[in-house]
Every structure is written in structure tokens, then in C-alpha cells.
Amino acid sequence: MKGLAVIAIAAALLLPPDVLAHAVGAAGAAPPKASPTRPSLPGLPHPKVMLGEPGRFGGTFLDAQVADPRTFNPILAQETSSTGAIGGLFDGLVEDNGETTETEPALAESWRTSPDGRTWTFKLRQGLQWSDGAPVTADDVAFTFQVIYDGKIPNSLQDVLTVAGKPIEVTKVDGLTIRFRTAEPFGPFLRSIGVGILPRHKLDASYQAGKFNQTWGVNTPPRELVGTGAYVMTEYKPAQRITFARNPHYWRVDLQGRRLPYIERLVLTIVPSQEAHKLLFLQGQTDSYGVRPREYAAFKRGEKAGRYTVYDGGPSFGSEFLSFNQNRRGGLAEYKLKWFQNQKFRQGVAYAIDRQAIIDQVYAGQAIAEYGPESPADKFFFDPRVMQYPYDLDKAAATLAEAGFKKGADGLLRDADGHPVEFIISTNADNQDRVAIGNIIRQDLEKLGMHVTLAPEAFNTLVNKLVESYKWEAMVMGLTGGIEPHNGQNVWKSSGSLHMWNPKEAAPATPWEAEVDRYFNLAATTVDQTRRKAYYDKYQEIIAEQVPVVYTAIPNAYVAVRNKFGNIKYTAFGGPFWNFPVVYIKP
Amino acid sequence: MFRYILRRLILLGPLLVGITFVSWAAIQLARGSGDYFQALVLQYPQISPATIEGLRARFGMDQPPWIQYLRWLWRIVHLDFGLSFSYQVPVTWLIGTRALNTLLLSISSLIVAWAIAIPLGIYSAVHQYSVKDGLLSAGAFIAISIPSFFSALLLLYAAFWTHLLPLQGLTSVNYDMLSPLGKLLDVGWHLILPTIALGVFSVGGLMRYMRTNLLDVLRADYVKTARAKGVPERRVILRHAVRNAINPLVTLFGFELGGLLSGAAFVENILGYPGLGRLILEALQRKDIFVVMGSLLLGSVLLILGNLIADILLAYVDPRIRYE
């Protein structure tokens, strides 16, 4: 700890006084506590207090998810069907608040950074227990990161937690203290470090035996899964359901100092499709349903009869866009490459897309127009000042004319060399929204005199074109996003394998791609979040100006939950259940 | 007879190698549509190419296709079906958890289908060209022409609006709290809808087979002889005609045995039934090759054995058939 100046992070400081104020307010009703100001439990002096109105204990929550979990191993879990099933079983050192999106203490009670921004020291809460009663210690944290960085265990956390090509050094300081040291200052550190901590006492034997990849697969008896989360899994019936029960050792309390969660039992029915989930919800056999934008009006009408409420989470993180192939390695005709590599061509297309038609027809009005790469759901990094392309066919034609494109007497748009503008837009056939968006875009572009064919294809075929053969012209695709733009570096940096329009460039092909690379690298190695925001603003502005991908619309996120549940605080970021421990059944 | 069975069983090996080789080759020919690992990058934009390569190597998928196939074959000989890419658990476990459910549904719908089709077919043949025969035939043609996914959708729609039957799954949410009898009733209750979708709607074809066969036999000389001898009509039909008319259906029964475990992906998918069909369909979409190959192998073994059983049964019911 030599020479380590202590800087307490604002978020760490913010919570305790906040909690303190609430706890004082509720002091009268609180059961016995060790201290008059902060709730405490026997053996767990500093539980985390979760805000919300005081609830009732007991009851069952019925939910459903599409598809079976792939694994119960949180390091290997990647698909939402796995993370959805085990997400409630494990906790990280820190977590993102579902409402404010701020990073908050979780298993760690506090942390501090060194002035050079490279060393982070975390202090675990005292008295934390695994769901089998064993204590949670710094050894568990060290073990978790040892597993993540193990080359024989392929996992995507490894990629997120690699700084300047090197793993983060993890050292146990004492039983409850753990220190991280990064090769360079790492801006996204706090948002990346909150990975689920694993129980060393349960997993070390199989890890040492080299069998970690097969450990905690879906064939594991659920009782073997030991975590720190609000629930423990009690049963898994493949293709039928997963059942969870309350974890008696959970580390959060309500404002009255009572150990959470309120709800006793959780049943997750596995359904083959979202349609099936919808039918079950309408029949009262599940308590919540993720309403799609086009279903919003119908669900809103049924609120009273179905005794549920549709919650509006505002813009979501998902986005659908049109991209043009600018990659020489795809074997595209030289003149087509010239169009797609021309900024004016792409801007012309961007002006020609009727986003309101997409919003109305695809999302039944429940969406907003999008022009830049980050969603307004990202309250911190979203830059509203990016260049916009409101629907304007005259402006589109004028912009195209600047690049030499002219509409002939036959109504066809031709480039300066006389090639008629013809291309194919690919998209995945199993995504109704994308096919619909592709059709609207096709109609819009034909108004300019382009000859566009829409080709819906199998998802795997499309992926193969995108990342291996590069044989495509234009594509309607979508990606899900998150708060931290750093996680999109595989898309935006010119070396990224998902840099769709020209993947894995040896060196940036254009000056603006070099600029974006530079800002991503700067933001990654800067710890000051305000400066990082400035760098990411630059990247959003460059992307919007260069339009390598033409954004369309961001749908809103909705969920329907039965009225009998209290403390529902739905947000697009946190989902309906980020505060599930305080959700309760009203009397 | 014993030598015949032995010869058939010995032939099973080369036949299976042939089937799996063709299947593997077909999967390889569809390479332009990518593999399982490639698709990961769209789901997790942060995943690095090195991680994807690591995963591919872990499953031996970085080798040339023919080495992959030989390795797979080598493991199969040792009864190791390999690991699923997406689940990372043994393929045998995945199939095992769903096989019993599929068997249950296949057998229940098989029983329902045969129990309805045989009597209806007999009735229809005996009353040939009557109004009832016409109605039954019309019904049969309608049932034949409705694809199973559509019949399942119709049933789902009916169940949704009437609230009479469960929409999804094989058990209720509170299944584990039920008594043994309660569990049995609960499963039976959930089985009704998929059984109707699969069983009742397959009655049409079977019934038509039975009708045609019986009509053929009824024209035979020995039936005329029996009638001339003054054997009661009921006895002529059931004892003399039906027993002979059933032969071709035995062959058909062998085929159905082969299909017992291949599941009914469409019906299972629509009615949320926890069977093999759903697993296989999903594995196909994801290109989870070992799961696909494992279930193909299982289906092939059953089909071949089903045919063998049908041939043996045929020899048993028809003394004219000899295999030596």
C-alpha cells in the first residue's frame, strides 16, 4: 500500500449517507439493530440496504423465458437464456443501479483508486456468506479472476477485462481485501469488474482437475450451485421450468433492516417462443411479459381486465440499422465499392429513409428516430448533438448529386460513370422487424431511382457473410448495446472483427476511422469519466457524420406486470426486476 | 430365422456408417451458411476472434472435415456422443432428459391413432359407398391434408379461448407438490392436446390403408368360401378378412417404431412440449453438430430396428412369409 493516496469514489461515498437518511426515517418501525443509524444483521454488520416501500414476505412469482439455459456456469454463460436463468444467483463486487445506471457497491462495501488510476482496492462486506453458509472471502474473488484469465477456459469476460493486451493483476491483501492493478489506467474498469464471484470451495477441485469447462453445466444438480444471490435454484426440468427459492443468507436488507428478498419462490417456465409466453400471460399463468412495441396498444387496453400494468421504460438499447459493404476483400464490383465508400452516397441514403414510417409501421408508434451509435437510454454517454438526417427526399437527391449521382430520363439513378445504382439489401428472415424495416428502406430508396432488392436469409448465412466471406452489398442488422461504449470497440475500432463495413483492417482505411480508433483508445486509458464522455462524444459525432451505418429507430421497452406486485421500478436498462429482492405481493 | 436376424444386425454397422457419412457430408456442404462459433460474435460483440478460435479448437472443429468425422466415428464406437457446443454437456444427457417425454407422447398418440383408425377403417370397408363411408373418407382426407403444425395451432387456439386444457408443457407449476396419483393425472391432462394434434390427425391415412386392404381381402375367394359355408358375417370379417388385411399395416407399424424418438418438432414447438423434436430443431438452427448427429444416429438405429421388428412380426402373422 506504499504511496497509495486514497481517493474515495463518489459513488461509494454517495450511498451510505443516502441509506443513512432513509434508515433514520424508518427507525421507528425497524426491528432490533446493532447501530441506531444503519441496519445490521447478526454476523452481517453492513448489509446493503435496498430502497423501496416496506413489503410482505412470501408468495410465488411466475415468469417465463424463451429457450433453455445453456449452462449454469456464470463464466461460460453468454446467451440471455443462461444469464436470465442464473443471473439472480451470483453477484459481483460492484453493480450498476438499474434506475440511475450508476455503479454501486455490491459484495464490496467500498473501494479506492491510486492517483495513477491503475490500482483499485476493494473491501468486501464483513460476514458475507455463500448460500451453503460458507464465508465469502478475498480468496473467492482471486479464484474467480484466475478462472477468467485461464487460457484454457474460453470466455468473453476475458476479452472485456484485458487492458493493453494484458490481464489485470489480482492480489489478495487480506481475508476481505483484494487489489487490482491494470497495465494502463483503464477507464471502463468499474463497469467491467462487476462479474459474478464464484465459490472457490465448490469449484476449485474441478478447476485444478482441468474440468472447469464441464463444471456447472445444465446437467448439474441445482443444489450444487452455490451463490450469493437473492435466490438459489431448487429444480431444473429441461424444456419445462426452473424453480428458485429464497436464499436465507442474502446480503441485502430492506429499509427496516429485514433480510431480503420478500418473495419466497420463483418459477421460470421455459417456453418455445415469445408468442407462447404471451398466451400464458394472457391466461394468468405468468406474472410478467415483455410487451413488444407493436403489442403495446392492445396490452394497454387489456390492463384492467387482466389486472396488470404496462410499464414504459423509455428507449431501449437495441437498434436496427442499414450498413454498406466498403470492404475490398468481399469481391464487390469496383464501381459499387466506390459508391459505398462515398460519404455523400451514404448521407444521401440517410436522408431518404422515412424513419417516421418505420416507427409507425414496425413499432406502432412506440419508438424514436435514431441517428447516432449510442442510445438515449445511456443517460451518461449519449450525445444528443450528433448530425441528424430527417426525412427529406430533395435533400437526399441533392446530396447524391454532389457525388455525381443523377436520375436519368428512365427514372434510374446513375453514377458519374453511367452505372445504374442497383444493390441487394440482406437481412435475417426470422426477424420480422428487420424484414419490415428492409422493405420500407427499399421503397424509400426506389423513390430516388435506386434499384434495390431485399433478400431475407437464414441468420447463420448472414453472419458468415458478415464475418468471413464478406460477400454482401448492404445489410439491415441490429445490435444490442449497453451503457459502456468501450464494449462496442469490436464494432467501432477498425481492427474489430465486427467492424461490419470493413472488418479486421490491418491499418485504418480512412482518416475518420483512424480518429475513431484514437478516441476509443483514449477513452479506454482515461479514468476521469467526464473526459471519457468527451472522447465518446467525438466518436458518436464522427460516426453520425460518416454514416458507415445508417440508423433507423430505437423501440421503447415495455413490460406488463400484474398489479398485485409492489415496488416494480421498471427501466430499459435494469429491466423489470433489477430490484427484485424488494418486489413483494400486496395483501 | 435366427441367421436372418443376425445377418440384418451385422449389416446395421455399415448401414449406420453410410447414413452418418452422408449426413456429415451434407452438413459440410452447407458450410457457406457458417458454423455455430461464428454466430457468437453477433451475440457478444465484445468476444475476440481468439476466444472464438479457442472454443472451436476445444471441440476439434479447427480440424479438416474428414478428420472431424473420423474422430466423431471413433468416439461413437466407444459410445461417446460428444459434447454439445452450446450446452457444453454430453449429448447423451440432453437426449436422455427429453427421450422419455417424447416416447410417452409417441406411444400415446400411436395408441390413439391405431385404436381409432383400425375400427373406422373396417367399418368404412364393410359399408363401402354408403353415406357413412363417404363422410368418414371425407373426414380422413381433411385430416390428411392438415399439416401437424396447423392442427397444433388450431388446438392451441381452442384451448386458449375455452380455458379447458393447459396450453404448454407436460406438467403444472405445482407438479412437485402433488401426490403420485395427482402427478399421473396432471401429466395425462397435459398430454391430451399434443396427443390429439399428433394422434387424431394421423388417423386419416391409417384408416384409408385399412379400408383399402380390407376391401381387397373381401374380394378374395376364401372369403366367398367362408360366406358360402354359412359362416356368420361378423366372423367372416373379423376372423378371416381383417387378420389377412392387417399384414401391410404391420410394415407400417415398423416405420412408426422408427419414428418413436424422432419427435414431432412442430407440434412440440407450438405446444411447448419438452420433447426431442424441439431439441433437434434448435440444434439444427444453431449448427450444434454433435447434437444433430447424435439424434440422427438414434433415429436411424430405431428406424432400422423398427423395420427388422416389422419383418419378424410379418413372418409371425403371415405363415406364407419365410426368410430362409
Helix/strand order of chain B: HHHHHHHHHHHHHHH
Given the structure, what is the number of helices of chain B? 15
How many strands, what sense, and barrel or not for the largest sheet of chain B? none
In total, the number of strands of chain B is: 0
CATH topology of the largest domain in chain A: Dipeptide-binding Protein, domain 3
- Could you name the ranges of chain B where pLDDT drops below 50 across 5 or more consecutive residues? none
Mean pLDDT of chain B: 87
Task: Write down the domain tally of chain A.
Answer: 2
What best-fitting shape of chain A do the alpha-carbon axes yield?
globular
End-to-end distance of chain A: 53 Å
Q: Which range best describes the helical content of chain B: under 10%, 10-25%, 25-40%, 40-55%, 55-70% or over 70%?
A: over 70%
Can you tell me the CATH architecture of the largest domain in chain A? Roll
Going across the major beta sheet of chain A, what is the strand order?
Answer: 1-6-7-11-10
Average residue pLDDT of chain A: 90
Please describe what this structure looks like.
The complex is a heterodimer of chains A (587) and B (324). With 587 residues, chain A is of the alpha+beta class. Chain A has 18 helices and 28 strands. Chain A has 2 domains: 189 residues, Alpha-Beta Complex (Dipeptide-binding Protein, domain 1); 237 residues, Dipeptide-binding Protein, domain 3. Chain B is mostly helical and 324 residues long. Helices cover 73% and strands 0% of the residues of chain B. In chain B, helix 5 crosses helix 8 and helix 6 crosses helix 9. At the A-B interface, helix 4, strand 15, helix 7, helix 15 and helix 16 of A face helix 2, helix 3, helix 5, helix 13 and helix 14 of B.
